[in-house]
Design a protein that fits this description.
The structure is a homotrimer.
Chain A lengths: L1 H22 L4 H23 L5 H4 L1 H16 L8 H25 L4 H22 L13 H16 L4 H21 L13
Pfam families (chains A, B, C): Gly_transporter
Membrane topology (chains A, B, C): Multi-pass membrane protein
Protein name (chains A, B, C): Trimeric intracellular cation channel family protein
Amino acid sequence: MFYTIDILGTMAFAISGVLIAMEKRMDLFGILIIAFVTAIGGGTLRDLLIGVTPVSWMGDITYTYVIIGSALLAILFKDKIYYLRTSLFLFDTIGIGLYTVVGVEKGIHAGLHPIICIALGMITASFGGVLRDTLCNEIPVIFRREIYATACILGGITYFILIYLGVKNDYIFMVAGAVVILVRLLAVKLKIALPSIYPNEN
Amino acid sequence: MFYTIDILGTMAFAISGVLIAMEKRMDLFGILIIAFVTAIGGGTLRDLLIGVTPVSWMGDITYTYVIIGSALLAILFKDKIYYLRTSLFLFDTIGIGLYTVVGVEKGIHAGLHPIICIALGMITASFGGVLRDTLCNEIPVIFRREIYATACILGGITYFILIYLGVKNDYIFMVAGAVVILVRLLAVKLKIALPSIYPNEN
Amino acid sequence: MFYTIDILGTMAFAISGVLIAMEKRMDLFGILIIAFVTAIGGGTLRDLLIGVTPVSWMGDITYTYVIIGSALLAILFKDKIYYLRTSLFLFDTIGIGLYTVVGVEKGIHAGLHPIICIALGMITASFGGVLRDTLCNEIPVIFRREIYATACILGGITYFILIYLGVKNDYIFMVAGAVVILVRLLAVKLKIALPSIYPNEN
């Protein structure tokens, strides 16, 4: 089941890359690269930082097929993709829930401090988007608005609270992931953003 | 001979970095860094992804000398460099042919899937340019036009077809490299680009 | 004492990240990430290039606390921070002196060529700023003006001259760091920049 979620998340990330690359009027190759970077960028950065090489996506060719497949489908049916907006948002949100938990676990496995593990979870879930925006010559969208990385961080904190409470591993995985997903869904639904630090915007 | 090609390719990449950095009116230091990043960025990213450290250029000081030397010459003779345009284009094209094959070989050596090896060849040959453009605050040119990465990918595919056909290693190296070079030369000569996916541009 | 300098340098780098992120009107999360990237980006790139993982800041949680702490203080007292401009400039300059020497030493420890070690020193001291500017969608400021990286390179050269002269390790550390600091202070004081290579600017 986790694998299915992972694949759905990868698809959603890849498609979000395609949409932004097409806005920038990139060619077919550029679009595929941006789809890739969006889908595997966060996990790649995490693996490099903790020294896991070859990085994960290079060891399982399925990701490559899923990314190329969903990118090509997204290009082909680009006029229809807006109808899928809600599904894509859901896949993406479920994806960051899963990616966060996977990142936290890899940090624990590498023997790192809880705060660093939470950072790794957040990096896994959100730095694909940061790289995507940087390559598209934009200031990363998650630096400017939206409870996105914050949801990942709250999920990571939940993870360690549950360990502290002695909860069993499988439940921790699911509850921490669910916190990420719920926080993001609620924030978007209720239009919650981080408090502005710029006085004239209040 | 391969070493000579490698050096010529490194020179061409470094000089292409100098030209773009000067357009952006960077100072001497910025120009040198962009020359470096263009010349060694692709190989560095490849080495990081497969876990080969210290990365290659750090182990052979010749690259550093060649890059600094050609960058300084390019700055000094910047008014004359446009006369060398055709030679530079040739060096650059021969360079990506070589870099592609080297990248594919390192992937095979690391025991990776053929498709991942081809991706590594393409990354080696073209991500120096991607990093150069990103640091110069431009959307990478290879994401928008020109059969460049596509030539690398076709060369990588040729490599594995030749292995499948049982061709001897030395020939594979040369034929796959030649495919990259020929595809790029033909594409530029015949002004072939990837088919547009934006309807109003056809 | 070195640790104190390191912490002061980290603080200065983090605060410089905060100031630029706020100019770009990023949200709280974006500001924290830019503070982090500015403070640990150079050392992280150095560690990745030579294969030291998990990268340094992940192994000592103090850096994370210092960065988050100084970033939050900088946001809170943002109106007052301009009064601290001179102190910050001093911390930053002392920081790059220290970072340069640390980078050179890690290169020597990894058995690399002196020129590569000097490059590592410069990367440690200045690539946090390069990443900061790239994520903020600007051409890196050190590519366009200011004797900054040049000061690091001169400090690195001093390091190897002192080794060659047989000076004791502790003195080398201090003298090479002092050269970086003095060159930068003098250059800013006397408004010295690299000689322009663009004729119409002379």
